[in-house]
Amino acid sequence: MLDAAQLNIPSLRDKVSPEEWQARVDTAACYRLIAHYGMADQAANHISMRVPGEPDAFLINAYGMFYEEITASSLIKIDHDGNILLRPETGYDYGVNRAGFVIHSAIHRARPDVDCIIHTHTWAGMAVSCLECGLLPMTQTAMRFAKISYHDYQSVAIDLAEQESLVADLGPHNNAMILRNHGLLTTGSTIPEAFNAMHRLELSCKTQLAAMACNSPLVPVPQQIIDKTYDLYQPGVRRPYGVLEWPALLRMLDRRDPSYRD
Q: Where is the Class II aldolase/adducin N-terminal domain positioned along the sequence (predicted)?
């Protein structure tokens, strides 16, 4: 179990609104879940969450902490211009990663319907991002992403000029995108929705790579079946993704290590 005191992070619970504190707890939980399911890349990558009641501010990880040690009080609050609004006392000179700010602020600013954004560098996601064919709708899970967005690689995302094409490629409605030669990105109106999308997108990538590695012909699915399955996965057809599972995921974290709540 992580000793949060080891990181010298005083609690911010009494310094933020109850709504922000709950967002911090859920965001920290999401970081821990990404680590638990093997989707973390040490201190790289980011999960961001819009601050309730502050549409121009969002929470993001202190650059230098591992996902497995993120806590509610360790998250940094910044605005869409990168100004730090609230920095925790971590005992280290942690700031915000430039690429994380560029990618996440662009989407938060352009998509008011998006409150949570998750970006990963998993081996499976990066591998599929390098394939010319991209993600194939070859399984029921992958058919949920049959119309996934793609963004061409433009080097490390530290240039503000890339924000326009990043937002345009994601589009006004899509909640998942493959960053070519880079990794995966999902969004959601809630943290459970964004996490569920990333979990299933990652599973889709792993399944595709495993099947392709068998060097055997793939079973084709008729396009009309792919389209029907995709439609069944769309908002309005079913309950929001991830909401049902979220309490169980938190219970799992609490059994393993409840320090994310600090």
A: 25-209
Into how many domains does the chain fold?
1
Q: Answer whether 41's CB lies under 8 Å from 116's CB.
A: no
34, 176, 102, 132 alpha-carbon torsion, rounded to 10°:
100
The token duo for 139 is 């399984």
Instruction: Write down the residue that tokens 């094409």 correspond to.
Output: 165
In degrees, rounded to 5, the angle at the alpha carbon of residue 175 between the alpha carbons of residues 59 and 231 is 150
Map tokens 């967002």 to a residue.
23
Which residues are registered as beta bridge partners of 188?
116
Q: What is the pLDDT of residues 201-260, one digit of tens each?
A: 999 999 999 999 999 999 999 999 999 999 999 888 878 899 999 999 999 999 999 999
Angle at 80 between CA 78 and CA 83, to 5 degrees: 45
pTM (2 d.p.):
0.93
Residue 117 lies in a domain: yes
Residue 127 belongs to some domain of the structure = yes
Task: Find where tokens 């194939």 sit.
Answer: 136
Question: Domain containing 50 — which CATH number?
Answer: 3.40.225.10
170 within a domain of the structure (yes/no): yes
Per run of 10 residues, the mean pLDDT along the chain (length 262 residues) is 62 94 98 97 93 95 93 96 89 82 92 96 98 97 96 84 92 93 97 97 98 95 96 86 95 96 94
